[in-house]
Amino acid sequence: MWSSSSSGGWHLLATFAGVSSYGAGAGGGVDIGWYAPASTKLNNITAVVDGTGGVYDFIYNSSDTTRYGTYNWCNMPHVRKTEYVKAAKEYELVYVELIHRHHKRTPYASNAFPVEPYHWNCDDQGLYFYGKPIDSKRKTPAAQTYWKGYLSAINPFVPSGWIGTCQFPQITTAGLDDSWQHGADLHDVYHDLLNFLPSRDSEKWRDRVVYRVTNNLITSQVAGMVINGMWNASREVPLLVQASTIDSLEPKYPCAKASFLFDKIKSNERWKEHLNAAKPLYSLLDNISGVPVTDNGFHEGLDHYYDNLSARQCHQKPFPCKIVDGKNDTSECITQDMANKAYRFGHWEYSHIYRDAGEMALTASVASFGVWIAELAEHLREVMTEKQHVLWYHNIAHDGSVSRLLSVLQVDEMVWPGMGAEVVFEQFYKKKQTSGGGGDGGYFVRVLFGGRVLTSSNPSLGVMDMIPVETLLGYFDGLVGRGASLVAGKCGN
Ligand SMILES: *[C@@H]1O[C@H](CO)[C@@H](O)[C@H](O)[C@H]1NC(C)=O
Ligand SMILES: *[C@@H]1O[C@H](CO)[C@@H](O)[C@H](O)[C@H]1NC(C)=O
Ligand SMILES: *[C@@H]1O[C@H](CO)[C@@H](O)[C@H](O)[C@H]1NC(C)=O
Ligand SMILES: *[C@@H]1O[C@H](CO)[C@@H](O)[C@H](O)[C@H]1NC(C)=O
Ligand SMILES: *[C@@H]1O[C@H](CO)[C@@H](O)[C@H](O)[C@H]1NC(C)=O
Ligand SMILES: *[C@@H]1O[C@H](CO)[C@@H](O)[C@H](O)[C@H]1NC(C)=O
């Protein structure tokens, strides 16, 4: 299923490429206007509603990566040795920054049905959580303590939502395995294949790599496994984290204007039409799950049902049946068809919120994720001024982070980024050709999404395969300002 072409996309053939531009402005000759994404089944409400069978050719029921390159909600494709396309030999890789969503997890408590038919337990792992003095003169190391969730026989209170020994959310054991493999695959490419990263055998990698997480603990749960997949580290590794109220990666800094715009996007005419089109599905799901029609969280979009059902499916747990007098009524259960429709709606919603809603979508993402964009831009700059010697900057984040990034990059086919969904920025140095012509040298960037070159609808970015770094920086600077100087203003702070 892997496309041999260098261009990305999920093989949903575009019927036309959108070209309308709003507010195109200059960023050093770079067009920073919004351009419509391709028109595909993903953002076609008729196809969402009428679609029968599956969810395009997407996978929802296993982390298996045999059909690599295919969208897999449970375990998205990432850079991997067997499929990796090497750059032409005149390009020397000098820096890699990547960001990916955490791996598969239990659902969030807020996504639970009023009565869940089964417990969800996590006794097969520990969440290691402890403080330890670094360089303590007293040499008093901490014990390796971990959280063990349990159900008290005495406590009469029942949590709303999921019941079990897991945290909701928590990366599941299968998600931890996927995280380790993700790290191992990255090392296979960037060490074994490219000899860019140091080997595992020495400690040389330690001051060449940076790992960053968000304040949501599930990203740290993933980090431990990803890092050992990459390095099999024999001692501790720091994880950068910003203060919880201003974290640019999650993102969490105050940005009223972005919230206002996202609310507007989720209440415009197209959004209302899609909720209307979803009514028959809602009445089926509500009836079986017992979610009241007045529950706004479940009814402002299909997001909660999507998360609720897909988390079960990725972990081979059954769809719930109607619970009548505390018993399953197995004649009325949520079906795969219902789930598939919810999933198709989910992709439509992500495409609408982050891409189709026009300039507003771009502005909202730029404002709410602009600080991280400016941080990335500065890293790319520092490589060129040789101010830094970090080779590898690794961000572990959320669908909200990856979606906003895809929105800023104006990806031509927007999907809901599934578990582990990855965007990689590879920065290359191209030597000046001394004879025979063929280029002026300089720095270039290739952007990979799901392991393949990302295509942007914005003509200045286009197929993001070796675009001059100045173009990308001009684009970023034009939108967020150097040092994120435009972000506070765009947030209305
Ligand atoms: C949307 O999908 C429907 C049904 O599959 C199709 O008839 C229609 O042409 C599509 N619209 C666009 C704009 O592609
Ligand atoms: C997942 O679904 C596909 C298509 O519906 C099916 O062929 C496959 O056997 C399923 N895999 C698992 C692990 O359930
Ligand atoms: C699914 O939704 C139900 C109904 O609100 C909720 O009780 C349950 O916790 C949700 N489960 C997940 C995994 O989101
Ligand atoms: C990891 O390192 C340990 C020694 O610290 C070694 O015994 C083990 O085989 C290594 N595991 C892998 C998967 O390389
Ligand atoms: C729920 O399903 C039952 C059984 O199919 C049906 O009798 C009832 O009318 C449904 N309720 C709603 C609100 O759709
Ligand atoms: C109810 O159904 C679920 C599957 O939806 C199953 O896991 C659970 O064991 C059932 N409970 C009872 C009491 O039959």
| SSE run | EEHEEEHEHHHHHHEEHHEHEEEEHH
Task: Please identify the structural class as seen in this structure.
Answer: alpha+beta
Number of DSSP helical runs? 13
Rg result: 23 Å
**What is the CATH architecture annotation?**
3-Layer(aba) Sandwich
- What summary fits the major beta sheet? 7 strands, mixed
Question: If you consult CATH, what is the topology?
Answer: Rossmann fold
Bound molecules: 2-acetamido-2-deoxy-beta-D-glucopyranose
Q: For this structure, what is the CATH homologous superfamily? A: Phosphoglycerate mutase-like
Give the tally of β-strands: 13
Highest CATH level, the class:
Alpha Beta
Total of domains:
1
The overall pLDDT, averaged over residues, is 90
Amount of beta strand: 5-15%
Q: What spatial form do the alpha-carbon principal axes imply?
A: globular
Stretches with pLDDT under 50, minimum 5 residues: 1-27
Helix content: 25-40%
End-to-end gap: 46 Å
Can you walk through the features of this model?
There is one protein chain. By secondary structure, the protein is an alpha+beta fold. The protein has a single domain, classed as 3-Layer(aba) Sandwich (Rossmann fold). Helix content is 33%, strand content 12%. The strands form 4 sheets. Strands 3, 6, 9, 10, 11, 12 and 13 form a 7-stranded mixed β-sheet that branches. Strand 11 (442-449) and strand 12 (452-453) form a beta hairpin. Helix 2 (173-193) packs across helix 3, helix 4 packs across helix 10 and helix 9 crosses helix 10 (359-384). The termini are far apart. Mean pLDDT is 90; it is low at 1-27. Bound molecules: 2-acetamido-2-deoxy-beta-D-glucopyranose (6 copies). Residues 107, 111-114, 116, 161-162, 289, 291, 307-308, 311 line the site of one 2-acetamido-2-deoxy-beta-D-glucopyranose. This is Histidine acid phosphatase. Keywords: Signal.
